[in-house]
TrEMBL record:
Co-factor(s): Fe cation
Keyword flag Cell membrane: no
Name this polypeptide is given: Phytanoyl-CoA dioxygenase
Source lineage: Eukaryota, Fungi, Dikarya, Ascomycota, Pezizomycotina
Family: Belongs to the PhyH family.
Keywords: Iron, Metal-binding
Organism encoding this protein: Letharia lupina
GO molecular function, one term: metal ion binding
InterPro entries linked to this entry: Phytyl_CoA_dOase-like
Length: 314
């Protein structure tokens, strides 16, 4: 009797430990970088399980049913539930999860747009996935002197109702003077053209100044104001579009476990998810702690300040 054939064990891909010189050059040129296997399959699975647990276990009893608008006006963000979420874990609904009479049309675990904004401190699993050797090495390679994690989110992009996110720059919403924000965007599920993957205007971080910022308005609420300070990072080499030239967007389809680095000036967007498959991701943002971050920004630091990605002696 012939021995049965046993398939060799499938080895998990090795998690990279730092950026290569080629990757860093690509990021500086294009304004974004895709790094496959930045989190192991085991870690991704654990984070996805924790996300699903949070979605199924949060209470609707005292929830104000705050929606997260992905439209150009961002009209959702005037309420206290949103504005005081900087040191909490809170749940924000998809706009299209409600009927015209205000009733949920989806189960609550399929109605949430995002969970934020303090997962990097309050969730042990997401904290561990934030403060990794790779992420610290990336910040060092980018030249950060005092990198601070100021917000973290799970963005769900729910099946059938996941909202479109129009072209935007992260530094508009997380403004420092001069601009310094970098997004660390990690796919917990495959992100494809069907379920609303990211699209990038390659190189637009060198062409698009940060001209507006999202602020708390006097008398309450939020809105956009013109930027009075620097519109590009310090000592940044910029370029201009040719006359009448428009930005072109390229798809960023990625597999689960991929890290996407996004420059704060880079124009990027995502389309609606009309498919039957969700597109869960985890993202956190880092700013330069030595740059000016003022009290007008919508997100204000907790009492102990924004969290250091690493100590300066590291």
């Amino acid at each position: 009797m012939a021995p049965s054939r046993v398939s060799p064990p499938v080895e998990s891909p090795t998690v990279p430990k730092k950026l290569t010189a080629e990757q860093l050059a690509s990021y500086k040129t294009n304004g974004y970088l895709l790094i496959p296997n930045a989190l192991s399959p085991t870690t991704v699975s654990a984070l996805l399980s924790e996300t699903n647990h949070m979605l199924s276990s949060f209470s609707l009893t005292d929830h104000p049913m705050t929606k997260f608008s992905t439209g150009e006006k961002y009209s959702h963000v005037g309420d206290d539930y949103f504005l005081t979420s900087g040191d909490k874990v809170r749940f924000f609904f998809e706009e299209d999860a409600f009927s015209t009479t205000g009733e949920l049309t989806k189960p609550k675990h399929r109605a949430i747009n995002k969970i934020g904004h303090y997962l990097h401190e309050l969730s042990p699993l997401f904290r561990k996935a934030t403060f990794t050797p790779l992420h610290r090495e990336i910040a060092k390679a980018m030249g950060f002197k005092d990198p601070r994690v100021l917000q973290s989110m799970i963005i769900c992009k729910q099946p059938e109702i996941g909202g479109r996110v129009p072209p935007h720059q992260d530094s508009t919403f997380l403004y420092t003077d001069p601009p310094s924000a970098v997004g660390f965007w990690i796919a917990l599920e495959d992100a494809t053209i069907d379920n609303g993957c990211l699209s990038f205007a390659k190189g637009s971080h060198r062409r698009a100044p940060v001209t507006s910022r999202f602020v708390r308005k006097e008398g309450g609420g939020t809105g956009f104001d013109d930027v009075a300070g620097a519109k590009f990072p310090e000592n940044f080499e910029t370029q201009e579009l040719e006359k009448d030239e428009e930005e072109e967007y390229g798809l960023g389809e990625v597999k689960a476990g991929t890290l996407v680095l996004i420059h704060g000036n880079l124009l990027h967007k995502s389309e609606r998810n009309l498919s039957g498959k969700s597109r869960f991701i985890y993202t956190f943002h880092v700013i330069e702690g030595e740059n000016d971050y003022d009290g007008r920004n919508w997100l204000q630091p907790p009492e102990k300040g924004f969290t250091r990605l690493y100590e300066s002696s590291c």
